[in-house]
């Protein structure tokens, strides 16, 4: 199985460099013009899962490979991609134009829940064919984002989040998924959606007296009234990750946020994340991040 492409891998693959502060950021966002991004000598984005979100405005014929589907785009389209489904897209003829923005889930911490919108659900292939008029609407939003990210406005990242939601809301209300792109959600997809919703419902942790309750696959299986083996099989089929991997990733994400954005001590964070002992939290964090919580906080 191909490894998940990280946001760092994305930069190394496409540009052979990594933004200086990317490892220190809680959330990352960037936007590119496809005219530059997909040049003659550019390396194609590999098919597979990524650990970041992607919204692309693609002008020009291409084939989108999303999960087990192939969607043919004849002229222009909007693509939404999430970290749970493997994908890539390839131009059919010539060089495409348009825009691409990438961002991590942490970029929207305490700023709405993207994963609850239909365009990011696992049971939909969110490829939207566009009319000329629709293309112009989205092009204008991407142009505003391109201008904003280069500005010195102190609240520019809040403005960029608003533009992302403008795209999401407009697409959710006004677009029609291509005929090949939707199928009836099967049992595995329904279970996966319910699991992800249940997981995310526990976050963000905003009070040191909060305590994470659902922490293991068996906890979630009991809550969903399914056998844990059935849950594990469904999650693996849909996301290509184990249930435990997804839970661990989300706990680590919240741990990073709490370490960077609160003044809680490590014991309080450990308690809120459901660890019985602070040493267990320290070992857990160091195992996956290769840094102790204290060292991560002080970077």
Structure description:
The protein is an alpha+beta fold and 299 residues long. The protein contains 11 helices and 8 strands. The chain has helices at 7-15, 34-37, 132-149, 156-174, 187-200, 217-224, 228-239, 243-261, 266-272, 278-289, 293-298, and strands at residues 29-33, 53-59, 62-66, 69-73, 76-81, 87-91, 97-103, 127-129. Strands 1-7-2-5-8 form a 5-stranded antiparallel β-sheet. A hairpin with a 2-residue loop joins β3 (62-66) and β4 (69-73). α5 crosses α7 and α6 crosses α7. It is globular, with a radius of gyration of 20 Å. The model is unreliable at 177-185 (pLDDT under 50).
In short:
The protein is α+β, with helices and mostly antiparallel strands. Helices cover 43% and strands 14% of the residues. The strands form two sheets. A five-stranded antiparallel sheet has the order 1-7-2-5-8. It has a three-stranded antiparallel sheet with strand order 4-3-6, with no helix packed on it.
Outline the secondary-structure elements:
Layout: H1 7-15, E1 29-33, H2 34-37, E2 53-59, E3 62-66, E4 69-73, E5 76-81, E6 87-91, E7 97-103, E8 127-129, H3 132-149, H4 156-174, H5 187-200, H6 217-224, H7 228-239, H8 243-261, H9 266-272, H10 278-289, H11 293-298
Helix pairs in contact: 3-4, 5-7, 6-7, 9-10
């Amino acid at each position: 199985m191909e490894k998940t492409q990280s946001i760092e891998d994305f930069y190394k693959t496409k540009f052979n460099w990594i933004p200086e502060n990317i490892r220190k950021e809680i959330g990352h966002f960037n936007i590119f013009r496809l005219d530059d991004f997909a040049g003659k000598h550019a390396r194609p984005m590999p098919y597979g899962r990524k650990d970041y979100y992607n919204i692309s405005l693609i002008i020009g014929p291409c084939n989108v490979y999303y999960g087990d589907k192939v969607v043919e785009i004849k002229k222009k389209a909007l693509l939404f991609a999430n970290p749970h489904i493997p994908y890539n897209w390839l131009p059919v003829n010539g060089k495409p134009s348009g825009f691409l923005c990438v961002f991590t889930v942490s970029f929207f911490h305490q700023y709405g829940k993207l994963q609850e919108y239909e365009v990011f659900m696992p049971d939909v292939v969110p490829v939207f064919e566009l009319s000329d008029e629709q293309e112009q609407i989205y092009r204008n939003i991407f142009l505003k984002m391109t201008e904003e990210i280069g500005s010195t406005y102190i609240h520019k990242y809040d403005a960029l989040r608003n533009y992302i939601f403008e795209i999401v809301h407009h697409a959710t209300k006004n677009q029609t998924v291509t005929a090949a792109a939707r199928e009836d959600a099967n049992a595995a997809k329904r279970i996966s959606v319910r699991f992800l919703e249940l997981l995310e419902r526990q976050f963000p942790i905003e009070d040191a007296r909060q305590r994470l309750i659902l922490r293991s696959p068996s906890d979630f299986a009991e809550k969903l009234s399914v056998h844990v083996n059935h849950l594990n099989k469904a999650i693996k089929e849909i996301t290509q990750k184990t249930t435990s991997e997804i839970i661990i990733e989300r706990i680590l994400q919240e741990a990073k946020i709490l370490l960077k954005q609160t003044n809680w001590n490590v014991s309080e964070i450990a308690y809120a994340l459901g660890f019985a002992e602070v040493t267990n939290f320290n070992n857990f964090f160091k195992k996956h991040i290769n840094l102790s919580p204290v060292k991560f906080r002080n970077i």
